[in-house]
Every structure is written in C-alpha cells, then in structure tokens.
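Re: fe (ii) ion structure - here you go.
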Amino acid sequence: MIKIGYGAWVREFEAERERRAALGDPDWGRGARLPAEIVRSIQKFQVGEDGDGSALCGKADRAGDPAYSEAVRLFIAEEQNHARMLKLLLEAGGAGTLGGHWSDAAFVRVRRLLGLRVELLVLMLAEVVALGYYRALRDGAADPLAREVAGRILADEERHVPFHCLRL
Ligand SMILES: [Fe+2]
Ligand SMILES: [Fe+2]
C-alpha cells in the first residue's frame, strides 16, 4: 500500500487546535432560546458526537502508520469537543443531555467486530448526515448562540470528510 502523508493532516489538526484555543469558547453566558424540537435534535446529535473512540484508535494503530494514529486521535478530540459544545449549548438553553453515548451501546459491540475500512464507512455516513444537520442549524436557527456553535462544528466536519476519504 502507498503510504500517504498523514503528517500534513496532523499539522492541520494541530493548527486547528491552536486556532480553537486562541478563539476561546462561544459566550455561553448569553444563553440560548431553543424551541423544543431543536433541543431534541441537538440532544440526539450530542449523543452521536460523544464517545472515547477507543475502538477506532485500536484499529488505526493496527494500520501501522504512527502519523495516521496521531491524526485519528486529534480527529477524535475534535468530535469530543463537538459533544462538549453541544452539551454547553443545551445548558445555555436550559436543557440537559440524553446521557449515555454510542461507545457503551450494543451498536458499539458490533462495530468492534468491523475492520478499519467498514468502521470508516459507517463513520463517513454519520459525517455526511452531520454536515446537512449543522448546515441547516447554522443557516436556519433563530438563536445566535446555536448558529455560532453549528458554524464552528460544521467547519470541522467539512475537514473530516476528506480526512476519512483519503484513508478509504
Ligand atoms: Fe462531529
Ligand atoms: Fe466529524
């Protein structure tokens, strides 16, 4: 197999982490006015974003490319940041999370049996659905905090799709 340069992806993810730190968090203190149906959709996506990613890490490590392993860990950190921001957005709107996350569901026991390639295909599907959702939330939500969070997450998801495509 041709080794593709994941070093560039590691640098890209690291640069993004620095941009994120420099920018700081959205102003949660301003609160959010979220209609009930928006709250329910955010709660569902919050569960989807959450998880420790250990199954994916293990598979990435077995692929035997340290730069890819590193890039996957940085990718997982971005997804965990999405879960964190959605939780804080829900709190700003006076709502809670659904609790539990995909990494302890029966679904995950099935996913552990999959190879890296199929795992990435499942993940890609989720990423494409997420792109549509966050774009709709960014452009359609009435609440400014919800629009800001959706815009930030969308910018990350737009990089995730080509990252998985490169591996596939
Ligand atoms: Fe995400
Ligand atoms: Fe993503």
